Amino acid sequence: MTDQHRKNGNEAIKNKDYIRAWEEYTKGLEITPKDPVLWSNRSFACLKAGFPELALMDARRVIILCDQDALSRDQSLETVYQKGKFRYAESLVALGLPRLAAEAFSVIISEDETKHFVGMNYLDRKKVLERRIELSEINLKQIHQMVEEGQKEHETFLITEEDVGFYQFNGKYPWDHRPDERIKESALRELQHKLDSVSNGKLKLDFIKFDSGDENPLTQLGVVSNVDIKVEDIIMEEDPFLTIHNHYYLRCDYCFHFLEEEPGDDEESRFRYPCPNSSCQESFCNYECYCLARNLYHDVLCGKDIERLIDYIQRERGDIKKNNLLLLLKLFAIGKKRSVCPLDVEEIKHLTRFNTTTNAFGGPVIDQTVHDTAAIFPLIALFNHNCDNNVEGRQYLQEWPKSNTITMPSIYKMLRKTLRSIGCNSYRMTIIAKNDIKKGEQLFLTYCNPDYNKKSRHKQLLRSYGFLCYCNRCEKEKTDEFKTLPIAWCLYFPGDLRGKNLLN
């Protein structure tokens, strides 16, 4: 059965039908998830279809599987191994990461010289050498331009850090039908019902057109007001879908509540229920929270040394916040529960090397006073961005400080008890109106620091979310100093001449 899917995929590749090839290789991987040939073929299909971020991880899987079988792999597997390394490097090129791509090509060359792999013929080796030289030159130019631009009072074009490239994703994979399912009438009715529940009918889902800087406006879901709203009005409240926290305090890994080692008189505290797996350090409120976490994400992460993994990634990339990494790991675990391959620590290391950016998950920080604490709120994530936001998220009903000198007010205690009786998490987020909002107006949060000037806001949005803002505030700030900066694409993508004149 697997061979048939491989043959079907190969036939689709010949016909340049890369999407069908991806589907056939995926069906084969569902049967034999540790077949490096299928992973290699699917990586090639992704690369040709224009999805280098997927090709990168599939190629990485080829390398991992071949490394695990290093002692027994034969000549044919050596060929697959080299193809995996080559496609890994080519994926980095397509993602606009010239330094990392040059390093990946250098690894191929050095291994070829030391092991004399039969899998790489003369033409392949020549191509690899040429690519390494070309990318090394591009990287030197990039570093030179970074230094020059950094010394200027006003930048003339936008450039990222050395290992952060520009890659625009169109928001949908051809084989992924979830975006279409999301806007089906039944799904929209369900979302609207949830919005009605949390906002008492104040909000309405709608399709919104956004100026994206070109002739074709972007259309996507947004949230508009169903009623006139006054400044400081409470618009909606939502409990988090997923939370993360540091380990300085004992908390439930699922619902976030403070825990106690032993039962106490404090009704705000809950007794610790440790994970039944003795090698796992996570704790929960009770068996119910444990089961909910296990069904959502915990099975994949259970027993793994998450702290060691976090420390490793932060050493490699000191700019990555721990709360982002923890959220990414849980989200990755949720995705892995639906995939054909188990979670792999090496894969996570490489995933986080390229896909973690500050505030990248649409999840407001729950408590600024508690480090490494964050959450994802799915309904709040429906709100679109505007640099001049008309609503903001606030967090009420935080846990009362544990202190011998401060007692919890009775009205606060009663409110907390009522909310808990109806299943509300104590870390719910409340959306408040910043100013008066008319019926039919769209409601906006801000995805960047609103105190920044336009140039700094656009840098933050582009690097973290991959888009530039064309809101009224940004349009009004169209001065020479704050105009939208062009990108010198030739510093990222070999052969792309866009923006080359900016370097002169």
Map the helices and strands.
Elements: H1 2-14, H2 18-31, H3 36-49, H4 52-68, H5 75-94, H6 98-115, H7 122-151, H8 178-182, H9 185-199, E1 203-210, E2 218-225, E3 234-238, E4 242-244, E5 259-260, E6 270-271, E7 273-274, E8 283-284, H10 287-301, H11 306-316, H12 322-336, H13 345-355, E9 374-376, E10 384-385, E11 391-394, H14 410-421, E12 429-433, E13 444-445, H15 454-465, H16 472-476
Parallel strand pairs: 5-6, 10-13
Antiparallel strand pairs: 1-2, 3-12, 4-9, 7-8, 11-12
Helix pairs in contact: 1-2, 2-3, 3-4, 3-5, 4-5, 4-13, 5-6, 6-7, 10-12, 11-13
Tell me what you see in this structure.
The structure is a single chain. By secondary structure, the chain is mainly α. The chain is built from 16 helices and 13 strands. A hairpin with an 8-residue loop joins strand 7 and strand 8. Helix 4 packs antiparallel against helix 13 (345-355). It catalyses: L-lysyl-[histone] + S-adenosyl-L-methionine = N(6)-methyl-L-lysyl-[histone] + S-adenosyl-L-homocysteine + H(+). It comes from Funneliformis geosporum.
